[in-house]
Amino acid sequence: MLTSLTSFRDKRLFSIFVFGIASGFPWVMIGSVLSAWLKDESLSRSAIGLFGAIFAVYSINFLWAPLLDRVRPLLLGQRRGWIAQMQILIVGCCIWMSTLDAQTSLYQIALCGLFIAISSATQDIAIDAFRIDTIAQHETDTMSAASSLATAGWWTGYGGLGAIPFLIADLPGWDWQQIYLLLGGIMSLCLLVTLVVAKEPVVNREALLAQASAHYQSLAVSGNSVVNKLTRWLLVSLVEPFREFFSRNGARLALQILLFIFLFKIGEAFLGRMSIVFYKELGFSNSEIGTYSKLLNWWVTIVFSVIGGLVNIRYGIFRGLLIAGTAMAASNLMFAWMAEIGPHKGWFVVTIILDGFTSAWSTVAMVAFISLLCNRAFSATQYALMASLSVASRTLLASSSGILVDYLGGNWALFFIITAVMVIPSLYILYRLRHQITAIEKGQTLTRD
């Protein structure tokens, strides 16, 4: 285990950690902070839950991911250029949000949140591709370390920095509009790292694309060479990343992998979307939510992200996913018990620790797993395809979480029990894929049976 720690000393991991922060922080802007703001403005649980539909953007970002593989910005390179542009847009949206009033400008708030989601989802494509392109394919231990630090960074942005709005929301003279100005300032610091510290990955993308798209070279749809070149460019950009993934893995195995990715965190997604509303209804203050749900969860996640990376390096991704999935169901049941006993701070701490462990461990294993599945010629597109499926359960389906709570008559305990049961189908698929996942880690040809 101590030998595995050397993988974390790589200097490239600092930029990956900061990019993780930049990836997680926008979820605070359009997630927990927006939910708390709308709750303070007396919007219903169902309305707040439906606001989560803007997260659906994260589940479809693979549709424009090919552009990030093929279109090179004028400045900063293929990956850093896209990251910087999206960060600038996010800062601008925070400034816009600070001028809006929830009672009179609800439509504009939703629209601004949608723009943040689009910019953030596009930034995520470039960040994930940056990580995959930065770490060589044979550096599997470093990839696991990078996955753990990316996860730790994400939770630093979402949990650590995400605690700041809740800690200051109860202070005199602060309102949610001013808090959005603060969020924009914090995001500007991430932009500074992108511009000054991060180094553009060195990848001979043209050679990889030429190799991956060789079978399109003889295609001729007309006698016009310009039309033929444009057709081949579109096929390589939009079709080849998906064709290559299904061809390499086989249709049946590929669909099983994608279904597992989609289902794995669905229970956690339903829980997470309503967690802030649950804490506030249970009686916790904004400062208590910031301290326990954000700050405590931040440190727990960082610790278990590193431990999860070490376990993946030593024992494999399959075991990491299996442990995390089982623990996810258990942590959801702990939330059900908290709904029964009320705002008990001690039980809140225990529940947050286990929930942080499951979130960190499962994310590290999933990020490493998806990263290993990607062809470097299409790292942005293929990672976005698989990651968007994981996000889809957190957006398209989990946006109905508030409706489910209302349907259950506000029975939070039953709601959390249902979210625990949601984990079971993914664990069944994971068990069926155990041999294939082991083969992926060893770089072997996958069994398609």
TrEMBL record:
GO molecular function: transmembrane transporter activity
Entry's transmembrane regions: 12-34, 46-68, 80-99, 105-127, 148-168, 180-198, 253-276, 296-313, 320-341, 347-373, 385-405, 411-431
Compartments, as annotated in UniProt: Membrane
Cellular component, GO, one term: membrane
InterPro entries, per the entry: AmpG_permease/AT-1, MFS, MFS_trans_sf
SUPFAM superfamilies for this protein: MFS general substrate transporter
Membrane topology qualifier: Multi-pass membrane protein
Origin: domain of life: Bacteria
Gene3D superfamilies assigned to the protein according to its UniProt record, in alphabetical order: MFS general substrate transporter like domains
Pfam families for the chain: MFS_1 (PF07690)
Keyword field: Membrane, Transmembrane, Transmembrane helix, Transport
Official protein name in the record: MFS transporter
